Amino acid sequence: MNEYKYSLDKSSKKFVCPKCGKRRFVRYLNQISNEYLEETFGRCDRETSCGYHNNPKQNECIAIVNIERINLIPDFIDPLLVKQSLKKYGNNNFAKFLHKNFAKDEVENCIAKYNIGTSKHWEGATVFWQINQTQKVHTGKIILFDEDTGKRVKNPFPHINWVHKKIKKDKFNLKQCLFGLHLNKTRVATTLQYHCNTIAIVESEKTAIIMSLFIPEYLWMATGSKQNLKLQLLEPIKNENIVVYPDKGEFNDWNIKVTELQRQGFKIKCSSVVENSDFETGTDLADIYFAMKKNTPKNNIAIVSSDTEKKIQRLSKINPSIISLIETFDLIDEKGNGIFCRIMEY
After folding, report:
1. Which of 191, 212, 217, 256 is the most exposed place for a label (fewest CB within 10 A)?
2. Where do the domains of the chain lie?
């Protein structure tokens, strides 16, 4: 069976339909780049009452194209572009958002650690560079955020672009890597800096950066998209202890992938802490931590813990060292799930 460049997303994730306004909309996905097309391209599952279906034009077969791409040597970005972007943070909306919510020295250290850049592509835009453990630059993702909310600017269109597209390099063979992968080499040299040598993986680069400020004991990385939790990107950290934190609504898909990675020898677990929260679909770990920080009662904030985690929380009040014991030995509960040890107070 032939595959096509654009196809409907096969995961369980649904978006708000542009016609009927219901969260039953399945978007089209670029099978080569693993990126969603514009928000108007997709199909509403409410076929009888809505029937909205906007499919992309010139949808070419890529069965042969994929075979050719496998044998191509990946292209990289000139590291000089990274260096040139590491400035003008007063004109970087995401950097300004971080400064509004965290201490100045913490933000500056985080910006330097993750090589957060500033882009002129849109006024106030940010660049998240994908740099591997040998310091080669795979690409950079350009995103525009709102400096007050920290949310992506989606109107009048999603403000996301790529450096390799912006420089218009002909036939650029993109092979993505985990955002934050370059820090793994540093971590190996300074293992005491991070707790239990644990690498924590989330979906978005923004979430990884924010969580590195909330919980600096862990090394935070990001897949860049929910489709990127796969062997190709995680291979460089196969021998590390890994915990992934999918966004609300993505647990089942990520847990299936984690199970397969476990079969291939990965020391990896999938946390259900976000999935078990009372937040809406699409919430990520950083959203929960910000809500806890603000202690907003109107959101009815609660993280539903497993029975094991509830017992651990009670015991930790008597003997706090039990948390260190669980994290040190990477213990799991009776169902084989990772235990979310950090006691959250709200």
Report:
1. 191
2. 6-70, 79-166, 183-328
Judge residue 212's burial from the number of C-beta atoms within 10 Å of its C-beta, 0-12 exposed, 13-18 middle, 19 or more buried: buried
Query: pLDDT of 27-75, one tens digit each?
Result: 988 877 677 888 888 999 876 778 889 888 776 665 544 444 444 688 9
Closest CA to 198 of 51, 206, 159, 211: 211
For 105, residues 6+ apart whose C-beta sits below 8 A from its C-beta are: none
Instruction: Name the pairing type of β-strands 35-36 and 241-244.
Output: unpaired
Q: 147 CB contacts (<8 Å, ≥6 apart)?
A: 93, 94, 96, 97, 100, 124
pLDDT digits (tens, 9 = 90+) for 78-133: 999 999 999 999 999 999 999 999 999 999 999 999 999 999 999 999 999 999 99
Given 3-state DSSP classes, what are the helix, strand and coil percentages for the chain, each rounded to the nearest 5?
A: 35, 20, 45
Which is nearest to 162 in space by CA: 179, 142, 178?
142
**What residue spans of the chain are helical by DSSP H?**
63-70, 79-85, 93-101, 104-114, 163-166, 183-189, 205-214, 231-234, 251-263, 285-294, 307-318, 321-328
Q: Which of 240, 239, 218, 244 is nearest to 229 (CA)?
A: 244
Cα(45)–Cα(231) distance, integer angstroms: 31
* Cα 51 from Cα 74, distance rounded (Å): 41
CATH number belonging to domain 183-328: 3.40.1360
Count of positions (residues) in the chain? 346
* Beta-carbon contacts of residue 111 (< 8 Å; ≥ 6 apart): 89, 95, 98
User: Would you list the DSSP string of 25-37?
Assistant: EEEEEETTTTEE-
Q: Residues near 227 by Cβ (< 8 Å), separated by ≥ 6?
A: 11, 29, 34
Residue 10 carries which side chain, given as an amino acid letter? K
